[in-house]
User: What shape does this take?
Amino acid sequence: MDLKPEYITGAAVILAFACGTPSTADTWLISIDNSTISVAEAGYAWVDLSPEQREYFIQGSDHVNDFTLSLARKDMIIMEIHRLDYLRRSDIAALGNARIRMEASLQVRDSIFADAERSVTAEDIEFFKDHMGRTVWYTSSPGSSFEEICGPSHLPELPRELAVHLDSMNCGEELPLSDGTPIRFDSVVVTDPELVAENLEDSDRVTDLAVQRFSSVRGKADLDRVADSLLLSIDPNVNAESVNHLILHYSGLEELVPGDSVAVSNMGIMTAMDIVQTIEYQSDFFPVKPSDTGWLEWFVDTTLLNEALRQYYEDTYPEEYTELLTERDDWMLGIASDKLFEDEVYSFISVTPELLQNEFDNLAEIPTIPQTRSIQCVNVTSDDVEAYETALALGIGIDPIISRCDFWTFLSEEDPPSNITRPLLREEIPGNRGDEVFAMQPEDTLSWSSLSPLYESYMYMAFRLVKVYPPHEATYEELETDLYQIVMARLMAERTGVWLKEMGEKYSLAVNEDILSTLPSDPSSWTTCE
Amino acid sequence: MRFILVTLVLACVVFASNATTDASFNIGIRTETGGEGFLDELDYFDMEALGSSVYCVGVGFDGTNFWVTDAADVGAVGPNTVWVISGDAAHTVVTSFLQFETSSWGLRDLCCDGTYMFGSQDNTVDIYDIATYTHEGYYTCSAVSPNRAQAWDGTYFYTGSFSETIYQVTWDGVIGSTASYTTWSSSILNGGTYGAAWDAYNDCLWVSTASGDFTLYQLDNAGTLITSHLYSIETAGGCTMGSYSGSADEQLWVLEQGSPDGVRCFETGPLALEQSSWGGIKTLF
Assistant: This one.
């Protein structure tokens, strides 16, 4: 007997049972403003999620419902973003520009280093092996205003013409390169030839080393060359006064002038707003310090270079650049949704002192703050250890030593920081000395402690007690920050609900709950429901 | 068929489970006017929980796994060890092996050139094969002793030790040879140089310090101080660039000489799109 037809029928029945009716995949699941999302389309949206995104829903109590509703609302919010033309808002557009600038410049860098690796030939590797172990010092354009003292450099890793040139010279000799640049060969260190020969016996290792070294050195040189050429062609001029205005802005001393011209080049004007938004973009993944002159000048220069590299990528790789733009546009929707959320939720919320006081008054139980202690801490260098311990043992002469020590100020809560810490819990006392500090008599505020090493034998710490704060019922002031978080979270949830309800009505958002209740729990299978 | 208009009730159901707990109080954009960005911590693993002693000092990344140096000998609690910890989110112990002929604090910071891991306890830099964990030899560098901080930029090594000076080291690749060096920077203001990591993405050198002042230094590609940053590590050991599970790009990992010793990951490169706020809806963007 052939069992195959029964098997297929059985499987079909199971599939139909699992997926509701045979036409389930094409049935609408979500309806928004006269358009619909089918069960299958929702299934594909699930499949396209990253594992982390899927996990977010799976760990909830009702992931099918949560996912469906979130998908519906996401589409609704995208419609609202387009309706309000958020993508053209100057701040959002500037963020988009910052992103494409960074992504394109990274692509250029990657391409250059990949090309450099591909450029390494068998002849290069032989040259490396032949000259391995020779480290040189040389001077370019000696005696001129362009003089540059170079080295130590591993000879085979230098540009080939220069390497061959130096290899043909004697120390102290000066000869021009083919472009006329005079080179003086200053000195050389040659590794023991027997040692080199021993290393060369492991041919694979040396080959890998050569490829890696050539890739790196050529990649850097090519990148520098491209960057120099691009910067020369765009001829950027940074307006130091505008940079200074920005620093003052970030220091809280001046209002931002968004249209202030920070840099002018052949690519156009880079305004203060452009820089501010680029900093904002980068602050998501990089520590920024815009009130620091050194940091901001470095950042402006880097931004100009990245803009030049972006232009280069657009001109050189137009198709790939278009792909980057598509990715950037998706990203901007996310940014725009955040801005929309700020405008529609945050701007409606006001956490007043009255609300916080009311929250405090209605706490079921006032928490207890455990005992805390403030201390003074100093770093004692290894040079002072003996004198310190002697002074401690004799009970005299410790103050002159303390006076040349650095106090720890970063645990102060004062502005500017003092050399007394804020009240610290036992576990917050530095150097694992919480038990010691908490064992001290409260009135013993003059004695300096013994030393304990901070690390290795380089630096030691010592402390003395300043004040004991006994355990007590928390005051309103001590809980204010926590209360703020609680009230803020509640108000946000309430306002978000109201906003989404209003949006749902505006866009006639509907979910086909009848079909939703019949769908399998794995949305991946929604794509194939027949 | 029943058509359900989405109501406030449903909204509250979803937000009760998602948004109220996941909503960030600072939506995605972290820089406020007048504010400074802080190094965001992405990940952490506790070395002592993984079996190390309390004397971990350095960290390197071999492209897949982290290597952590453990100076158990200094506390007479065991031999000096290198712990190999998986680079994935689980951070489990892959293996551990004894440091080659080290004593006291042994190897400090580590760096990797793609083939070997480098670390030092004196004026030589030991070389370990990252595939076999075997000691392949050393090169000599008399810039400092030990060559405590270790970084590599593809061409040069960088080292320094408890001072403001960072040296650039030229090694010819010959195992057993003597490297040449120059003073590259004198910008580490707290003089507590312990670790270094070359950040190719940002074209800069990060320098971690053990001066107990929560400060990390950032030098440009010429050794000039860009700035210093405050972060959550009071006393650092070594540092390295290494991959983070949320990103293809490398982030900064710093060994914390703390209680317990551990390795913290700080965001210094772009991550995948951030899904930081307002629950399920943002998760889909």
Summary: Chain A touches chain B through 113 residues (CB under 8 Å). Residues 353-365+475-506 of chain A form one domain. The longest strand of chain A covers residues 459-469. The two ends of chain A are 29 Å apart (CA to CA).
